[in-house]
Amino acid sequence: MGKGFGSASRPVRLSLCAIAKNEAHRLGNCLASVRGFVDEIVVVDTGSSDRTVEIAKQHKAKVFRFEWCDDFAAARNYALRHAKGEWILVLDADELLDAAIQPILTEVMQQQTCLAVNLVRLEVGASQSPYSLVSRLFRRRADLGFTGIYHERIDLSVEEIIDREPHWQVVTIPAIAIHHYGYQTHEIARKQKYDFAKRLMHKHLEAFPQDSYMYSKLGALYVSESSSIDESERESLSALSGEDSEPRNLKLARGIELLQTGLNLAFQHSQQDQTLFELYYHLGIAYTQRSQSESAKQAYQTALELNVPDLVKLPAYNNLGSIWLEETAYDLAIAAYERAIAIAPDFAKGFCNLGIALKAAGRLGDAISAYERAIIIAPEYADAYQNLGVVLMRLGQVPSAIANFKQAIFYHEQQQNFANAEALRSGLQDMGLL
């Protein structure tokens, strides 16, 4: 029995199931995050050539080999077949379990009618969707498993079980449970990851053409690709990958088409609010890129009416605020940003955006407070220092403004945003301030 279960009324055995390939640089941290909480670790290796297997064994994992067949659900279910616990926790090598959530998970697993648990995952480094909802904790049953070639889920088998045995429930825990570091990758690695994901998602839709969830994921990927890197980088990446670069506008159009198809299917098959939220949310992003602000606002507002955790809604509030700001509807923008930081008081970007809206509305003192709060949360936040310097300069506080500008330049360079650093430095030099 793992120590993490403390004074639980009846011990519940918990198995961690993970699949991995060449994850020696990350797997150790993942497994360490569940030490003392899980009773068993099952790692399925899908063909590693590094020290992945060795590291798994160092963490007392039971390691099994699986010949990769372009099917994530098959690999997941192979891991499930080797687990012995009453409950299953699923993590990837680039994920960590938040220690603070463990007592809550312990309580939920004691609930006699709980079949599965939806967990909030923090997408570390993700620019558009910092939180997602994933079903990663569930009872071990022979009839409960994963389906899907890519973005595999247990949802279908959970729904089938509940249809037969309606006393079962799915519980959603609104606090952050998992930290996911998969978005912190070099652009070339991200391009390779995108290509791999697209290939498997298209393959999935050939097998499951009615899956609105996969249309959401694939549409979002196309929209993300249309905006994530500039054209010169795209040409370089394309040359390295040996593929032609599809123009941005075509990627965006393809993304919107996929998302709209997903919406139509979702309404036909009464999909969960989480899937609908993702479809509307990513349509909001796509319409914003097309400068169709009314359609974008409608998509975000529809998404916000759905029954999903507030943390998942946070980026929709933030993006909606940015549209209002662009339209000089400052009060509406401020309200949206304030809602975002009320949901996540440590959301530095939300405070910085709030500062921008407050500055635009002429509330300079409040803007300073917002920027300072962003810097307290994220001390290396270059844009917050730069925006704070602008407000201080407007108020005539030149020495303090220059000090903040210098901090902004320093952190821009630290984060390899050399163009931003040089633009700010040149501007200050032109003004005779450097």
Describe the structure.
The chain is of the alpha/beta class and 434 residues long. Among the domains are: 3-180, Spore Coat Polysaccharide Biosynthesis Protein SpsA, Chain A (Alpha-Beta Complex); 185-308, Alpha Horseshoe (Serine Threonine Protein Phosphatase 5, Tetratricopeptide repeat), CATH 1.25.40. Helices cover 55% and strands 13% of the residues. It contains 18 helices and eight strands. It has helices at residues 27-32, 52-58, 72-82, 102-109, 155-164, 187-207, 212-225, 231-241, 248-268, 273-289, 293-304, 310-326, 330-343, 348-360, 364-377, 382-394, 398-414, 418-430, and strands at 14-20, 40-45, 62-65, 87-90, 95-97, 114-123, 131-139, 169-180. An eight-stranded mixed sheet has the order 3-2-1-4-7-6-8-5, with helices on both faces. Helix 1 links the parallel strand 1 (14-20) and strand 2. Helix 17 packs antiparallel against helix 18 (418-430). The longest helix has 21 residues, at 187-207.
Task: Quickly list its features.
8 strands; 434 residues; alpha/beta; 8-stranded mixed sheet; globular; 55% helix; Serine Threonine Protein Phosphatase 5, Tetratricopeptide repeat; 13% strand; Nucleotide-diphossugar_trans; Spore Coat Polysaccharide Biosynthesis Protein SpsA, Chain A; glycosyltransferase activity; disordered N terminus
Shape: globular
What is the CATH architecture descriptor of the domain at 3-180? Alpha-Beta Complex
As residue ranges, the low-confidence spans are 1-10, 229-244
Strand content: 5-15%
**Total number of beta strands:** 8
At CATH level 3, the topology of the domain at 3-180 is Spore Coat Polysaccharide Biosynthesis Protein SpsA, Chain A
CATH class (first level) name of the domain at 3-180? Alpha Beta
Could you estimate the helical fraction of the residues in percent? 55-70%
Biggest beta sheet attributes: 8 strands, mixed
Determine the number of helices (DSSP H or I, runs of at least 4 residues).
Answer: 18
Main sheet strand line-up: 3-2-1-4-7-6-8-5
Intertermini distance: 63 Å
* Structural class estimated from helices and strands: alpha/beta
What's the helix-strand series?
Answer: EHEHEHEEHEEHEHHHHHHHHHHHHH
CATH superfamily of the domain at 3-180: Spore Coat Polysaccharide Biosynthesis Protein SpsA, Chain A
As a whole number of angstroms, the C-alpha radius of gyration is: 23 Å
Mean pLDDT: 90
